[in-house]
Specification:
9 helices, 52% helix, alpha/beta
């Protein structure tokens, strides 16, 4: 019996960083599903594929191999064996990933990969449809949220730290646009999973977020074993 922990939330809510630190504390695998969709998006851009051409994007998704490994405190994403962890975190990918992730056959392929991981080992999986679609049977469901301005500030600082020259207002605008696309799309829209525990991270440090989730996990595990 594997332990399945689902963490959902919008971009910049802190779910990726928190999920990998929680997984490290528990000694289990962290899975960044958003990075998988970013990898498909990156490959489309690299091959000059029009992301609005659904069939072409689906062919790309079907032709590539995506894997993830936890190395130290980071989740590394591999595309056909190449570490693309930094290459998929760019404004260019930001602009198209919601389009790419809206295609059914792309989602079907990646959801299959994600479920296989969860069925073979204990995992912390984070994304936008984990508790609602990927792991409806998750033992623990967390939904992380934060104000748009705070999320934009985090994304802006992340990009600047990587040497990407961006404007805060542009980051804010793109994030707002992505929120709308993610929440209004017909296929697997971003929403709070049934039975999820909601955590507002606007005024919380990463350490506070991790501690809160670890506490929740311990409480649920105690209930399971009693």
């Amino acid at each position: 019996m594997t332990l399945k922990i689902a963490i959902d939330g919008p971009a910049g809510s802190g779910k990726t960083t928190t999920a990998k630190l929680v997984a490290k504390r528990l000694g289990i695998l962290p899975v960044d599903t958003g990075a998988m969709y970013r990898a498909v998006s990156y490959e489309c851009l690299r091959r000059n594929i029009d992301v609005h051409d659904e069939k072409s994007v689906e062919r790309i998704a079907d032709s590539i191999n995506i894997d993830q490994k936890a190395i130290g405190d980071e989740i590394h994403t591999y595309l056909n064996g190449e570490d693309v962890s930094d290459k998929i975190r760019t404004p260019e990918v930001d602009k198209v990933v919601s389009i790419v992730s809206s295609y059914k056959k792309v989602r079907d392929k990646l959801v299959e990969i994600q479920r296989k991981l969860a069925n073979t080992q204990d995992v912390v999986i984070e994304g936008r449809d984990i508790g609602t679609i990927v792991l409806k049977d998750a033992d623990i469901k967390i939904f992380m949220k934060a104000s748009l301005k705070e999320r934009a500030k985090r994304r802006f600082n992340e990009l600047r730290a990587k040497g990407v020259n961006v404007n805060f207002e542009d980051v804010l605008r793109e994030l707002k646009k992505r929120d709308e696309m993610d929440s209004k799309r017909e296929l697997a829209p971003l929403k709070i999973p049934e039975g999820a525990i909601i955590i507002d991270t606007t005024n919380k440090t990463i350490e506070e977020q991790v501690e809160e989730i670890i506490k929740i996990i311990k409480e649920v595990k105690n209930k399971i074993h009693t």
